[in-house]
Request: fold
Amino acid sequence: MTTPAEQLLPATQRALLHRIATAQSDGRSPSVVAAVRRQGQTVWNGARTCVDGHAPDDDTQFRIGSLTKTFTAVLVLRLRDEGLVDLADPLEKYLPGTGVGEVTIHQLLGHSAGLGAEAPAPWWERTPGSLRPELADVLGEQTRMHTPGRRHHYSNPGYTLLGALIEAVRGASWAQVLKRELLEPLGMRRTSPGPEAPHAGGWAVHPWADAMLPEPAEDLGLMAPAGQLWSTTADLLRFAAFLAEGDDRVLCAASVAEMKTPSAPPEPGDWEGGYGLGLQLIRSKGRTLVGHTGSLPGFLATLWFCAEEDVAAVVFANATSGPLVGEVAADLVNIVAEAEPRIPEPWRPLPEADVDAELLALTGPWYWGTRTNILRLNADRGLELRGLRGDGRGARFTARPDGTWIGLDGYYAGETLRIVRNDDGSVNHLDLGSFVFTREPYDPTASVPGGVDENGWRGLGS
Reply:
């Protein structure tokens, strides 16, 4: 019998250590630190360093760069859930005078607002935020690179605007709101806008010589919501647990799931990746990973979480460039998933009170034309429609108070499923977005669009 807290096998632990050791050596980073969470528990920590006897641990802060954006996105979704903003609203409604007020909050969250990728010179990541005291200094003169809503174009200034939106609506600084509404409820006591000992120093490693140069750690000022935070692997695994299931103290599961939904088409040629609302989405060895990468001069960071395997990995390095920590973190997830696949929870029947006779009568085969589909009643009392052979347009549905059902995913996400009944109350057919599903292929007693030939089915010689 296994338990979620069971530690990884020695061979798996060695494979994880080998991966980060290779990353530190080949990537020529002063140090690399990593951790893995599985089924709610931290199951592995590892580190490699160039200083004997002085390896960072899960309580050592590193700068996490653009991973900060995910935290900022959570704070914006909280405003939405409280009814204080609408994601479809233009920025101008809450933050007038920016010059880009027509872009929506949703577009800013998903990097589809068409804004520039960076603030004007000098390079904002390596200079004091005091050089950009106003939003106009962050946006610059060329505020629009693309038509809003047309494409994904990553924008650091866009998240600066979201930070300013949070401050305008809450009447408090971004850092204060972050600590009060996210860090404290999740117990992330080692995540902060500035470094708090013990923390790593940031370094640049010469590309052609084994020599290092210290990097400055600037306060980013207005750009803080795009990349300011410092954190530890232990704290980011707590954050990964939140991203897996949500936490009503911070953000409900439905809103966290919304963050994981692609918000704009991927860039051409990047069909293995996408962007939700403050979360990056990638495919790695057939698995979907959600999380974010981050970098600032002297630091690299990545958090990936795989829902199918319930495995999360965090990797930090204190080098401006070198280890490809995004790939390393994905490899750590895949090492665990392949060496020790997730053991599923035991199947259990529905509680007796949840076995609804009317819903049970709806289950089984339904035909869209001649295509066979199976309708199932799930443990959450939701319905699920799937093709018999695994083909077709499957989806899950949840009940509405008016007796209809709403699609949750796939082709039918947001579409309405109606149970159409005869005068005597018996079911005639299912109507799903105008598609008619019948109990028999082209059932002549059902309301099949176009009707059914009165001569019925026939053979070749008819």
Q: What stands out?
A: The two ends are 62 Å apart (CA to CA). DSSP finds eleven helices and 19 strands in the chain.
